[in-house]
Write a structure and sequence with these properties.
Distance between the termini: 32 Å
GO molecular function: lyase activity
Low-confidence stretches: none
Keywords: Lyase, Pyridoxal phosphate
Structural class: alpha/beta
Order of helices and strands: EHHEHEHEHEHEEEHHHEHEEEH
InterPro entries: Aminotrans_V_dom (IPR000192), PyrdxlP-dep_Trfase (IPR015424), PyrdxlP-dep_Trfase_major (IPR015421), PyrdxlP-dep_Trfase_small (IPR015422)
CATH class of the largest domain: Alpha Beta
Mean pLDDT: 96
Domain Aminotransferase class V: 84-242
Pfam family, one: Aminotran_5
Length: 382
């Protein structure tokens, strides 16, 4: 795959290696958003069908990305919203517990903690191994071993959001299925840049904010809910999620029944006339590129960085167990100094530091020049 910087609106002389923080706009996404803003200047241009048909298109595009039927997908305003919609409908028996990994993203941790408190259930947090090399496989094994018939739910990110470790979701999903445990995955930091298959991985709910790897706008997202949730209780009671809500002549019949599949979990006013066209443009471009190609491009881009780590004798996980679009470079605390951080800023290098990891998160808008600039600064401090 060739570099795609020409399709983005990134400033020149900026080494933006921080897609895990927020994606830059594709020019097509930018254009769609501007056109969406202008539509409301003439409200007659917005027809009744526009409240529903664009949303169905986006659910279909998302389904192609994660191997799910469009009817089981929902439009959400945030990952935390999508997550609580799922967690509220997980049945807990007396004595059961929930499981998640340590240093999980705050929204995921806080939501599961609250649900466990409501059910008077334990929240069990699985810590990482103390070593770096081989951490992914051992951590995955520890998670699987912890799942029993008494585990009501496992909540985790598809990759570790700080370290970029690729958990074996298929093996974890198989264990959850065998113990009748709900498997809920936050895909915000991988879906759109790393292959995802909710059927193969036996995922019951997949939650994704759109402003990172889906290349969409902030305050929007997508979620998949398996058929287990089709009779669940949603967070809100919007008229738009009801059966036949597209028929405006029946609005005051106040139907009780929801639409089919996961329609009940759509956020109210899901037909956002600005955000949806932007999200659609992002999804279309990702599907055109293909996720596998994005990941391969990033893998090749990071080869000099992996070579640098080996040359310097830095601890590192095996490359096969690391994502390439979100790559956690481990440094001892003594090297993560304010001077290093300032040096990155001085040279217009944008990365995130999370714990003891420098989170390098490239995309197809990056070039070898960006990685070289990052390594050059790092080399002065390591």
């Amino acid at each position: 795959m060739k570099n795609q910087n020409h399709l983005f609106s990134l400033p020149q002389n900026l080494h933006y290696l921080n897609g895990a923080y927020m994606s830059p706009n594709l020019k097509s996404v930018e254009k769609a958003g501007m056109e969406g803003v202008l539509r409301k200047s003439d409200p007659t241009s917005i027809k009744e069908s526009d409240f529903f048909e664009p949303a169905l298109e986006i659910k279909s595009l998302f389904g192609k990305l994660i191997n799910s039927p469009a009817s089981q997908n929902a439009l959400i305003p945030s990952a935390s919203y999508g997550l609580i919609n799922a967690l509220r409908n997980v049945p807990f028996r007396s004595g059961q517990h929930g499981i998640m990994v340590s240093e999980e993203f705050p929204s995921d941790h806080l939501a599961l903690r609250k649900i466990c408190q409501d059910h008077k259930a334990d929240l069990r947090v699985i810590p990482p191994p103390v070593f770096i090399k081989g951490r992914t496989l051992t951590w995955t094994e520890d998670i699987i071993e912890s799942i029993t018939e008494e585990t009501a739910v496992v909540v985790m990110s598809s990759i570790h959001w700080m370290q970029g470790l690729k958990f074996d979701l298929k093996a974890i999903g198989e264990k959850c299925r065998s113990t009748h445990t709900y498997f809920i995955v936050d895909g915000t930091q991988s879906v759109g840049a790393l292959p995802m298959d909710v059927q193969e991985f036996n995922i019951d709910a997949l939650i994704c904010a759109s402003y990172k790897w889906l290349l969409g706008p902030y305050s929007s997202g997508l979620a998949y809910y398996s058929e287990k949730f089709n009779q669940g209780e949603p967070v809100e009671y919007s008229w738009m999620t009801r059966k036949d809500s597209h028929d405006f002549d029946k609005l005051t019949s106040y139907p009780e029944d929801y639409g089919s599949g996961a329609m009940r979990y759509n956020v109210g006013e899901f037909s956002n006339f600005i955000a949806l066209p932007m999200l659609k443009a992002g999804l279309e471009q990702i599907l055109k590129w293909k996720v596998e190609n994005i990941q391969s491009y990033c893998f090749e881009l990071l080869e000099p960085l992996r070579a640098f780590q080996k040359r310097k004798g830095l601890e590192m996980e095996d490359e096969v167990n690391m994502s390439s679009h979100l790559y956690g470079l481990f440094l001892p605390e003594s090297l993560l100094t304010p001077k290093l951080k300032d040096d990155f800023k001085t040279h217009n290098i944008h990365v995130s530091i999370r714990g003891n990891f420098i989170r390098v998160s490239p995309h197809v808008y990056n070039t070898a020049h960006d990685i070289d600039a990052f390594i050059k600064v790092l080399d002065r401090h390591v």
